């Protein structure tokens, strides 16, 4: 009974009116020729694929799940394999990939927009090509010319899929204690032995081959993360012609029974002397894997943008249709026995919270996508470095803040439907279950918070944070002469000042007690998240203010949502800052035995 309509109007607003992507891309030789019509056409056609092919099998995938048939065989839900064949035939997986390997070479920001729609339509299905994209990124950055020629064209076309194999039963985030072994054979190959768990898309029936990127230890590897190497371990070893040949010595031992994303196979992978080849240098595999992990973290952020959007659409449609009680200010639908529930203030609170979070997340994610294009394709090394620093700083915010808000948004959407939200046929409870994993995998959101505060902010004395502060200050200066912008720019500037003070205080405390970082990290990430969303809403409002005279209700709605954000959601920052300042004492004083 659910529905999904690609939000093309808002996507185009962000891409063309806020970011002026075509103007920005003209500075990049690789993308200088792309125009707005091309981008719009891609997203319109991609939206049709998502709405007409992927969305109808989303609930099917949730109900059926994947099936483990023994001896390592896994089948996907009804329609998944056929949808993937259409995806490959249309070339959707090649959008943002290198033309040298068969890709279409489109900007990352366009690929991000397409991924949002795919995740709205069917997150579990989208994980299969999404993981392939991460494997592609790692091999493109660290593979040998021979590895690239062998594997990348097949990953780009979608003929083969990819995974990342990191986690072991005793080693989740702490990869330094992993035990999987890699024994050199003597001919440049290695035998990989060990068990990996929680491997998304580790086994399935959708592609002709699956390329696993596996972290393992060489016999003489030093302990800890300095002794980790990365290996390509294909399901079928390519023959002399590059086609799938002999079955490799590993298989899926089982699949997990999960709370959500039932349509994606979460596998236990048993490697029993499987043949692999080294990626990059020995004992430096984590550098290569971080390319894939960061790609995945950005992708998880887009998963929650997508889920928040589809949940919002369905709760909004329900609120406009469901009749219950009368408005407190008198009947609004006088020809009906009751008013639609959208007249009630708290229903509007729930809807506007979703709208404010998803539209800010979309703007932020696309802004970051354009920064990634600048990082990789701008001819000026200084510009590349500036954007690389911004992306590094804000990646944990995309993963952590957006997924937290995405889960809250899907929960609010379910609440809008009341009892019907709890019933499977409406689809909202699936979105809640699917959204919950996004706060956990690819580094829990606590890990993201520690990464942001410890590695991205304090480690360089706040240099990256100051660069983002400069971006905010430039926006505020741009609107300084416009009194209509003060209601948006003043709280943004105020929060930037509070962030600067808070960061300095935590840094000083941390020099005496490192636990202060752990105690402050989670509220600190949410404060930075609100700083980013305040920036996004100020940015959007600046465009909308100029377009009000057009009479287009879209711009009035944009400003109204911005005002709601600053009135109702932004104030959370005050309590978060107080939490971050409260320190570690109340957390660490209690003896373990007394818990």
Architecture overview:
The longest helix is centred in the middle third of the chain and has 37 residues, at 285-321. This protein is of the alpha+beta class and 595 residues long. Helix content is 57%, strand content 11%. The mean pLDDT is 96. The chain starts with 7 loop residues before the first helix and ends in a 7-residue tail after the last helix. The strands form three sheets. Strands 3, 4, 5, 6, 7, 10 and 11 form a seven-stranded mixed β-sheet that branches.
Shape: globular
**Rg measurement, Å:** 24 Å
Number of helices: 18
Mean pLDDT: 96
* Helical coverage, percent range: 55-70%
Q: Alpha-carbon distance between the termini? A: 46 Å
Descriptive key words:
11% strand, 18 helices, two-stranded antiparallel sheet, alpha+beta, 11 strands, 595 residues, single chain, seven-stranded mixed beta sheet
């Amino acid at each position: 009974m659910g529905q999904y309509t690609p939000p093309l109007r808002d996507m185009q607003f962000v891409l063309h009116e806020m970011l002026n992507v075509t103007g920005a891309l003209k500075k990049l030789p690789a993308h200088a020729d792309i125009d707005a019509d091309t981008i719009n056409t891609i997203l319109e056609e991609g939206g049709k694929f998502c709405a007409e092919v992927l969305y109808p099998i989303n609930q099917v995938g949730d109900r059926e799940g994947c099936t483990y048939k023994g001896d390592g065989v896994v089948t996907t839900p009804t329609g998944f394999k056929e949808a993937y064949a259409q995806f490959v035939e249309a070339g959707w997986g090649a959008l943002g990939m290198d033309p040298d390997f068969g890709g279409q070479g489109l900007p990352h920001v366009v690929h991000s927009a397409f991924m949002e729609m795919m995740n709205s339509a069917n997150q579990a299905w989208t994980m299969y090509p999404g993981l392939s994209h991460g494997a592609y990124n790692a091999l493109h950055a660290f593979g040998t010319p021979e590895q690239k020629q062998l594997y990348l064209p097949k990953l780009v076309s979608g003929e083969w899929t990819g995974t990342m194999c990191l986690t072991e039963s005793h080693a989740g985030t702490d990869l330094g204690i992993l035990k999987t072994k890699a024994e050199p054979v003597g001919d440049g190959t290695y035998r990989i032995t060990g068990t990996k768990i929680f491997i998304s898309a580790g086994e399935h029936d959708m592609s002709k081959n699956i390329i696993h990127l596996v972290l393992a230890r060489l016999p003489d590897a030093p302990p800890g993360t300095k002794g980790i190497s990365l290996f390509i371990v294909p399901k079928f070893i390519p023959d002399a012609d590059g086609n799938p040949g002999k079955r490799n010595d590993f298989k899926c031992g089982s699949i997990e029974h999960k709370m959500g994303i039932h349509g994606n196979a979460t596998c236990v992978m048993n490697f029993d002397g499987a043949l692999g080849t080294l990626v990059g240098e020995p004992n430096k595999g984590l550098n290569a894997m971080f390319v894939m992990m960061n790609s995945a973290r950005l992708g998880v952020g887009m998963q929650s943008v997508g889920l928040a959007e589809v949940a919002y659409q369905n709760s909004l449609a329900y609120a406009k249709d469901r009749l219950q009680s009368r408005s407190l200010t008198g009947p609004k639908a006088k020809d009906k026995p009751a008013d639609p529930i959208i007249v009630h203030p708290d229903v509007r609170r729930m809807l506007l919270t979703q709208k404010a979070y998803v539209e800010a997340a979309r703007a932020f994610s696309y802004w970051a996508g354009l920064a990634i294009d600048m990082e990789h394709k701008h001819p000026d090394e200084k510009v590349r470095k500036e954007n690389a620093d911004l992306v590094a700083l804000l990646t944990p915010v995309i993963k952590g803040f957006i997924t937290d808000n995405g889960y809250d948004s899907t929960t609010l959407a379910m609440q809008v439907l009341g009892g019907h939200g709890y019933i499977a046929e409406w689809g909202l409870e699936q979105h809640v279950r699917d959204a919950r994993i996004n706060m956990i995998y690819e580094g829990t959101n606590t890990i993201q918070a520690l990464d942001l505060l410890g590695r991205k902010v304090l480690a360089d004395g706040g240099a990256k944070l100051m660069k983002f502060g400069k971006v905010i200050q430039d926006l505020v200066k741009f609107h300084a002469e416009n009194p209509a912008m003060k209601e948006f720019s003043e709280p943004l500037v105020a929060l930037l000042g509070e962030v600067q003070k808070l960061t300095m205080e935590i840094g000083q405390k941390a020099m005496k007690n490192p636990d202060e970082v752990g105690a402050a990290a989670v509220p600190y990430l949410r404060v930075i998240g609100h700083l980013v969303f305040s920036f996004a809403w100020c940015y959007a409002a600046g465009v909308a203010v100029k377009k009000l005279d057009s009479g287009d209700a879209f711009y009035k709605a944009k400003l109204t949502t911005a005002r709601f954000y600053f009135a109702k959601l932004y104030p959370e920052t005050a309590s978060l800052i107080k939490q971050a300042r409260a320190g570690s004492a109340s957390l660490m004083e209690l003896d373990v035995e007394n818990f």
